[in-house]
User: What shape does this take?
Amino acid sequence: MHKGIAASRGIGIGSVCLIVEHDLSYEKKKIEDTAAEKARFIDAVERFKSETMEMAEDIKKRLGPKEAEILEGHLVMISDPTMAGEMGKMIDAGQCAESAVEAVCDMFIGMFSKMDDDMMRQRASDISDIKVSLLKILLGITDIDISKLEPGTILVAKDLTPSMTSQINKENVAGIITEVGGKTSHSAILARALEIPAVLSVPDITALVKDKDSAIVDGTEGVIYINPEGDVLSKYVLMREDFIRKQAELKSFVGKPTVTADGESVELFCNIGTPKDAKKAIECDGEGIGLFRSEFLFMDNNHLPTEDEQFAAYKEAATIMGGKPVIIRTLDIGGDKDIPYLGLKKEENPFLGYRAVRYCLGNVDSYMIQLRAIVRASAFGKIKIMVPLVTCVEEIKKVKELVAEIKKDFDEKGIDYDKDIEVGCMIETPAASLIADLLAKEADFFSIGTNDLTQYTMSVDRGNADVAYLYSTFQPSVLRSIKHIIECGKNAGIPVGMCGESAADPLMIPLLISFGLTEFSVNPVLVLTARCTISKWSKAEADTLAAKVMNLTTEAEIQTLLKTESKAKE
Ligand code: PEP
Ligand code: MG
Assistant: This one.
């Protein structure tokens, strides 16, 4: 068994086709007939362009415009007069075409790879692809035709260039293994788009396999097997069937409403960190944003984002969501989240210290900048304000006062905003849970933050491995707290959602249905899985299970029962 990076989910089983790296060496000779050499170079560039254009068109048809962008980027780069122009100048000065291509590309690769920005570093790898393709054309090297591989092929290569990946046919390629590349590399993006299981960055894999070896690619776990034993193979054959069945089942949930087995509708929202993630939420069929962690806007900056900068970000998210709810959580820093330019003091117990709403209310001027930006952006969609780490009624009251002040000012100045903008509370501390009935009189909605609620209820640092065995939302104490919060919200007639990780947990979902949660906010990639799990439980079944669970005394018993009952639903 070999480990790598799980880059594209699923199980692939088949026979290896090893893509060997070609020898791209050439003789560096002084060119006499520079005009002929230039013509050879121009021919090579034209052939590169037409082949790339053809591949981009093909990808666009098979996978869509987004996936073709990588190759279209290559076309833009090679058409840039600077790059081809520099190469031409070197040929005019007597260098051979191969050497001109190599020197200019290496110069750009060196420049881009030193940059801090991920996009720029990606450009370095794009230019490296262009270099290899041009050198192959100039040296007359032809690659194996990936589009004509035998069905059930496991492609193994040092790296897959976009031009190679673009020829891959889902019908023929059962899996991809490479020696380099990460989750966001081109090969990973295209493998995911093609839904081909892929494991990348497996050390020395090209030296360890040969053509026709049998191989298993587990792109979900990031492991591969070469010439596996019979029992391993049989296990993976079953796992592959299971995966395919589940994927087909999930696809049938695209565009469907989120309803329980007995037809009760609930909302299925997404957690995001940047406005761009809202696109992902839409792509993944999310019905709104249940948690926009606004602190990322502050963390990705070297200064406090101005009102206009924040307004632009919130407006962007609201616009992308096109009228669907966007719940913006106001700045939640401190604890494990530091922002160097804020100059926060080092604290003995940062999780119990000056964080989230406590920091914001202690720095009202900067908090007002954020609240004003949010209220302004509310003119462009269904934005709601959510306050993190509330522990007492005064905190939510104070935030509401600040929002009222802003509204008054906007009314006077004629600035447009949503007059009905809601202000809700995250319930993520035992204190908030215990006074949920009181908070429900002030807040327009609740969202349960199980990540912190578990940490504070169990007195377990959520990042400390030594006490991780106690960090479980299935602890009876945490479950009682969740049930109580939802009841308090229901009694007061306000909606209760959950934006902690547990909202997507298939074992937790039936309990949440039983308790009466009406909004689930999950990582965008988990939308369909959550919708599928929700569809499997009727309220009555969930109630029966929850009644049994709430009578158990240990976390282990609870998990065992939930696992058994959930398995029966698969
Ligand atoms: C939570 O605590 O459950 C939560 C959603 O917030 P965060 O993970 O950002 O603290
Ligand atoms: Mg939290």
Q: What stands out?
A: The first strand starts at residue 2 and ends at 3. Residues 34-139 form a domain with the Enzyme I; Chain A, domain 2 fold (CATH 1.10.274.10). Residues 280 and 472 are 29 Å apart (CA to CA). The chain has a mean pLDDT of 92.
